[in-house]
Each structure stands twice: as structure tokens, then as C-alpha cells.
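Morning!

As promised:
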Amino acid sequence: MESEKELVFITVIGKDRKGVVATVSSYLYQKAVNIVDINQRIMTDGYFVMSMMVDVADMPIPMEEMGRDLEAIGQDLAMQIQVQHENLFKMMHRI
Amino acid sequence: MAFDLEEIYETASMILRQNLDIRTTTLGVNLKDCIDSDFAAFRRKVYDKICAHASGLINESALLEQKYGVPIVNKRIAVTPVSLIMETHCRPERFLEMAQTLDTAAADAGIDYIGGFGAMVQKGMTCSDRTLIEALPAVLSRTGRVCAFLNVGANVSGLNLDAVNLLGGMLKQTAERSKNAVGCAKFVVFVNAPEDNPFMAGAFHGVGEADTTLNIGVSGPGVVKSVVEKNRENDLTRLSEIIKRTVFKITRAGELIGRELAAALNINFGIVDISLASTTARGDSVAGVIEAFGIEKIGAHGSTLALALLMDAVKKGGAMASGCVGGLSGTFIPVSEDAGMIEAVIKGALGLDKLEALTSVCSVGLDMFAVPGDTPEETINGIIADELAIGVINNKTTGVRIIPAPGKQAGELLEFGGLLGAAPVMRVSPFSAGEFLKRGGRLPAPVTSIRN
């Protein structure tokens, strides 16, 4: 049911390279996180941006642990990874 | 996806590259219920109440930082104006002891600054108010985390010149007694002080507030600067619209996190203060925004118009974004905490006269600037009185945080380090208003106050 979902955005920013989606999604699979949507593009300023909307309702670990893990994965990939709850985008981008 | 990739990238960039943050979450705590005729018991109750509230604030803030990926830079406490709770313990040494209690509680709880060591004296001073002012040099030089304020005027009360006349001497003593005169950076004198301001040094928990209230200060001069740089060709109306939209987004982030934090702490959510507040971090400068408008250095003729545009757009965007805007809400232009302001003073683009003019269109006043250590007391009082007159007559908050730099002359640099930055010592007028200020008394409330 829609109301039981807890949606979080994972944003990966950096220079385009192989294996970004594979690395992040295999981590998410291990943590029982369902990927709801993926979008990626080279932005006008030249940065590669990949954003995943994921459902963390069944995730067995707290959000802060996922944040720390993904930060470490970002360092390995030489990319910046941000984890942000959906509410922030709703507040900032929708009236 | 419910959001465009551009929207997600914009939010991520604001945080990762443009220094968007929640500048402060300030928990206001009423201390009136701690008053006790036994002074030791009184201090113990104050200590316990502050520590109990502070731990929740710090823990819950950390969780929300993770949830939203937005840094919450400062977690602070503001208390009931201390002169009020000390009325029955009106001795200078007890004021120092109470300040030390607040200092210890803040340190033990992991809070960097605790505000509210101050008094409301816009119409007159009680014995407690006067004793508090006498104790300030000792308090500001012997505690590390206690911030002090005075409200010496209001649109409906006029300006208490007798209180202002006590400050030049007090500040010079404070400067001489504290390392790098840093004690003066922890004291601000206001008119029309808001009771829910979350920013230090002037935060206090007003008497009209509930037992506890959470106030939020958002900030993001870097975000505004970035959007201005992308829109170099726009005229002023369009520029204002773009800033409004950006500040709307920034404020919404503050509103969301503030409300969730207050709910987690099970207390009232107070206000969002939508001030743009600089830090010395690269790119996080209000002067930088003004310069991105096309002004060579802040202080050049045209800067007041630019700041007026920025200030108004910030207020409009913020007011639309939050149901409860409050505090100081505008644009701060502290000298020592803003790399662009420091540079403008050093290069001779910005002097004290122009700084005063800028404050007439922006909050909050003459902030974090240094004057020569041998500046006469009455000249310091005159600088303060001029700035505060702007606030009383124009029905706005103004404040002064002035640092007389011991042993330093105009053109030298006073280094504080950390958040407080470095203040280039500014030239003051060699002429005196001493005979005028010596008259004392109170500037009557202006005619604009008679509205009933």
C-alpha cells in the first residue's frame, strides 16, 4: 500500500564512470531496500548525476547507518552520495 | 519519478557546494520556575534544567541531519533574561556565579553558546538590571559560552540613553580583560529586540514565550549568490523574483526540519528566522551576493540599493515559505564573520559611515566590527546611540556588536579565529558628541508609536 512506503532519494554526483548503478544497487539489495525509480543524466555543468528513489520501509538498519555506508561507497567511487528523505523535496519543490 | 532530476540536483548542490545549512537550532528555556531564595538550590535547578533539555536537542538534531542530509551547524540554548530571575539575588558576585552556572551547564551539555544573560531596560533600569551591567566585564571575560544582551530601546518606549552611556566603559573593560577582546563578541545591544531570535549573541527566551520553544535559523548566502551568478542579465524586478524563489526553498527546508525537531522533542515550534547569515567559509558571504549583483566591492555607492533589494526579496520568499517567520529575519552583514566584508574594509571600500547606512535597510545592525582600543567611551556610546536611533525611529530591530581592540589602531587586524573570524580595525570620527550624550535621559518614543 502507498501509505506504508517510506521513500528516500539517493543522489550520486561526480564524474561519469562504470559501475556506479551496479555498486549502489547491489548494496541496496543487501539491505532489502526496494528501488522504485532511477534517473541519470550528464547535467549542463558537466556533472554526472544519478538519482534513485528507494523505499526503505523494510530496511533492517537505521537511516543513519545507510547514510554512513553510502558515504563510504561514494568515497570508493570518487563520487558524492547524498541520502535525503522524500519530505525535503516535497517541501522545497512543491507548494 | 515524482521529482525532476534537476530539482534533486539543485537541492543536492545547495548542500554540497553552496553551504546551505540550518545555521542554528535554538531551544528557548524558561528559567523563571527555577528561582529559589536558596541561591545554591537556584543554581542547581538552572543547571539541571539546561542539561536535561540540551541532550535531547543534540541527539534529535543529529538524527534529522542524517534523515535530510542537511547540516545543522549550531545547537544552542536561550534562557529567560537573567536580570529578571536575579531580582532577589541582586549582588554582582552572584551574577557572576549564575553566569558560571550557565557556562558549566552549556559546556557539560555540549552546547557552544548559551544566550540570555541580559536585561530589558528600554524605559529604565531596576537594581538587578544595573547590577547585571556592572557584572558584564567579569562575566564576558571569565566565561566562554555565555552570551549577553541588553534591549535599551523600542519604538514604543524611545531610547534609554542612560543605559547606553554605561556601555562604552563596560565594553572597554571587557575588551581589556579578555583574550583578543573576544568578550565583546558575546555582547549585543538592541532596540526592538525580538523575543524569539535564534541567533547569538542576542538570543534570549522572551517572557511572552511558553516554557520551552524551538526556533530555527536557516541560512544560505552561497545558494543565493549561485543563483544570482546564473542570472546576470536580469533587471532588478526579475532578480528579486529569482531570489524570492530561492529563499522560499531554503526556508522550506528550515521549516520542515524545525517542525520535526520540535515534534521529536515534544515542545512548541516557535519561528523560522530567515536571515541570510555569512560565515567565513569560502563562498558563504552576503557581501559576495551584493558583489554578484555587479557591485565591485560592498560599500561602493549603490550598495545600499543592492542590499535593500536583497533584504526585501529574502523577506518575501521566506514569508511565503513559513507560517511563522520571526526573530531577526533579514540579512546580516557582520564584518568579521564575512570574508567579503573583511576584504571591503581592508581595501578601503567600506567604512563605518557606509556600514551604518547599510544597516538602515537590513537587519540587524553594526555587527562584529572593531574600533581602535583608544576610542573614547563617549565615542563608542555615540556609535551605539546612532545605530539604535535608526531602529527606534524606523520601527525596526537594530543592534550593535562593537569591539574596541586594545592596543590596536585603524588598519590593523584583530583575529578571533573560528566562527568569529577576524575584524579589521575601523576608523572612527575624531570629533566628540560627549557633551550631548552627557545630557542622558531618554529619547521619547517617536510619533510613529502613537497608533492607538
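The radius of gyration of chain B is 21 Å.

Hope this helps with the figure draft.
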